[in-house]
Write a structure and sequence with these properties.
This protein has 172 residues and is α/β, with parallel strands linked by helices. 40% of the residues lie in helices and 16% in strands. The chain has 2 domains: 34 residues, no CATH class; 125 residues, Rossmann fold (3-Layer(aba) Sandwich), CATH 3.40.50.2300. It contains 6 helices and 7 strands. The strands form 2 sheets. Strands 4-3-5-6-7 form a 5-stranded parallel sheet, with helices on both faces. Strands 1-2 form a two-stranded antiparallel sheet.
């Protein structure tokens, strides 16, 4: 967990770019904690939910997109966690079994396709997956569908489109 009270006031010029992004994110959300560890933390507390504590994991390396989605899902009453790359998301999913994944395609360390492929190979009860991407080509969509994605949404998208898809998949 990132504890906002421990983050320094100014990013250093030697900080990697991702730290500068996280710095912005943390200070945009005062008095909140954000789960962004490299390892799954089974003891971490999730936010309470009016959606029956349905837990959604967002796996996307774009901090701004991730935070927008996270805020919308929390406002809709879901419990939300975030992973910033495919390996982190896969480890978290295997440890915690969220109710639904929102998965980007293009990420460092492990692409969304590789995450989805691994999940579908190892999962006896498939977790619903919504893939979000800036790739508009039909080839990417077809490959995602072949791997077993439940919904495929092109960026940019409206939050209503995403929330409707989530609701439909979790209420099946």
């Amino acid at each position: 967990m990132f504890d906002v009270s421990r983050v320094r006031a100014e990013p250093q010029s030697t900080d990697p770019p991702v730290l500068k992004k996280i710095f912005f994110l943390v200070f945009a959300l005062p008095n909140q904690q954000i789960e962004m560890s490299n390892q799954p933390n089974p003891e971490s507390e999730e936010s309470d939910s009016s959606q029956g504590n349905q837990h959604i994991l967002i796996i996307d390396d774009d901090v701004e997109v991730t935070e927008s989605i996270r805020q919308a899902l929390i406002a809709a009453g879901y419990s939300v966690s975030v992973a910033l790359d495919g390996n982190q998301g896969l480890a978290y999913t295997e440890a915690k079994s969220p109710d639904l994944l929102i998965l980007d395609i293009m990420m460092p360390r492990r692409s969304g396709f590789l995450v989805l492929e691994r999940l579908r190979q190892n999962d006896s009860v498939p977790i619903p997956v919504i893939m979000i991407t800036g790739n508009e080509g039909a080839r990417h969509r077809e490959y995602a569908e072949m791997l077993g994605v439940n919904d495929y949404i092109n960026k940019p998208f409206t939050m209503d489109r995403l929330l409707n898809s989530i609701s439909d998949l979790l209420n099946q």
